[in-house]
Write the structure tokens for this entry.
Amino acid sequence: MHTASLLHVLAALALAPLLPGITNRIKAWFAGRHGRPVLQQYYDLAKLLRKGAVYSETSSWVVRAGPVIAVATAVCALLMVPAGNVSAALPFAWDFIAVAYVLGLGRFFTVASAMDTGSAFEGMGASREVLFSALAEPALVLLLASLARTAGGDATLSGILAGVDGSAWSVHAPVFILAAAGLFVVFLVENCRVPFDDPNTHLELTMIHEVMVLDHGGVDLAFIQYGAALKMWVLALLVVGVLVPVRTANPWMDLAFATGGVIAIGAMTGVVESTMARLRLVRLPHLLIGATVSGILAFVLQGR
């Protein structure tokens, strides 16, 4: 494993909770408020780790395993995703398909954990999560597959994103634009952001992810929040890998550009949430279908 790849993983593990803080600070700035500290997520995690957890008598080991598996799958995905030109820690052929499946496994146990509480309210959020995941996962695989076609014979995610440089943009610009737009939509839905969900609301008609974790507390809730932040970092790396075509011979410079790009994606998320409202539930599948169509168009264009 290259030293830069190891540092990439360590930086993501340490800085992932920073992303929600940046997003919330941008939203506060748009609203004319001072807002919470950028490091608020770190304070919340430290407080939750010192608390205990209370479990319902109707729940089983599933409700305890869900938060742990959510963090474990996010870490596994991080090991397979590169930071721009810095190779992933564990690259292998067709690893971009494994990334989608690993993230899907984490979602499955999050949904199962919500269902295991026996709460009809959490079951409602779980059903909505499953609906969106059924549309988001095909879009993610198609978008990554369209990028794989631009890389020729390299089937690793590290090789695919390493080839997205300035010269490749001049040749495959339509493919990369469609892929970046679709990946950003997938980023928003996978991280339960506006217009799909609002992580700061507790209204019954709008909650999706937040309703699934209402019965979790203490260490379990800390794992859920940290896993969500880490997943946000991983998916932001995919968007940055396409939108920031800076590929230098210096791995430390490449890592710095990728990290800066991820932070910029966190800020962009705050801008999106400040300039548009959450869409009606019946309208949301249209965005995900649009992301899937973007992947199909990008795949077809690359084949011409």
